[in-house]
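Sanity check

After download, print the first record. It should look like this:
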Amino acid sequence: MLDTAIAFICSNYNKYSVAALAGAIESTSATEKVQLYFLSKKPGALADEINALLRNHEQLLIGFSFATTNIAHVYRLVTALRGRLAGQRVTYIAGGPHATGVPEGTLALGFDIVVIGEAEESFPELVGALSNGSSFSDLKVVKGIAYTENGAIVKTGRRRPVDVNDFAPFSVRRNRLSPIEISRGCPHACRFCQTSFIFGARMRHRSIQEIVKYIKLSKDNGTKDFRFISPNALAYGSDDGKTVNLEAVETLLREASRVTGKDHLFFGSFPSEVRPEAVSKDALELITGLTATKQLVVGAQTGSQRMLDLLHREHTVEDILNAVGRILKAGLAVSVDFIFGLPGEMEKDRRLSIEMIEKLTGMGAKIHSHTFIPLPGTPLSSREAGNIDEELARYLSRLANKGLQFGQWKRQQQLAEEAATFRREING
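Expected structure tokens:
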């Protein structure tokens, strides 16, 4: 067996996924003792650090996890490392939402292997195979990966969805802590979002016993405030992912707050949100009574019912207004997500969104603004990146000056355009 180590390339955009991967490595007996490194230096210094690691290990697996907006940066980094580390026993492995959505294009960025979809089983199994000295021709038994062999792309087939209870949500041993993922998957399949298409439409939940276990471990290792990761926090424990299971939510919050204390538990705020149709008076009483939550994040995306239907949002304009009204009445602040530059959007749809924003800000809400980014693997992946015209840009700036709007829509528009241009160039 080769002395193998893994070096994760870390940044702000992948800190949660790297923590989960490290937890998965620790949760798997065959790889739990593999040495992990977490690197975040600039390319030149990074290559020197990797060379130093190679003096202590027979081979190094360099792991990248990234989204579509990061591809130009990742390409430059991989290219620089390949140039500096030529001839070394290094394998470049990619994972994350972009790699899952377009594995062929990700291999073209300079990667040796792509992990497709959920990595908790695939990645440790791949690490084990490479540690045993397996050649690429032997990797066909590892489901959930893609690689190039003799000029052809080999895909080994997708795995069944994992049981999230089988894997740690983060790494305690390596002090890579993060908010705890409580639910995975989404039944709504919004046409712009990768969640349903990567993790499936059936929602899976981490058990309360496991959640409390990792809250305790996180607290013992210095965490003060506790948050959860979920596409819709109020869907926790729901059989279909759509119907709110208040009993499960209440049990979760009661058991969690017994460990954290009410003043250190947050629910339905970043890195989670709540869907508008899930917000009820009873749900808000649980949140205000058992947590320190001061603000909820609500996904609206548009104020046009026509666009909501086109996007397959499965809620109404009235649901948005009702949710915001209930949240504010409960004494909580609320930020409402809107996406601008959506495919198929007409002038009347934009006007309806602005009218909705005026209503919401008039009620006391703040608007969290985004620009549409076409994401691989979604029904809207082939559409053009969103473009914010001057009139809408001025309107959003005025809102921001009043403290009623925030978000990185300008940066997202730039990143979306860069990613689209780069993908066209790299794919010829």
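If your output differs, re-run the checksum step. Summary of this record's structure: The chain has a mean pLDDT of 95.
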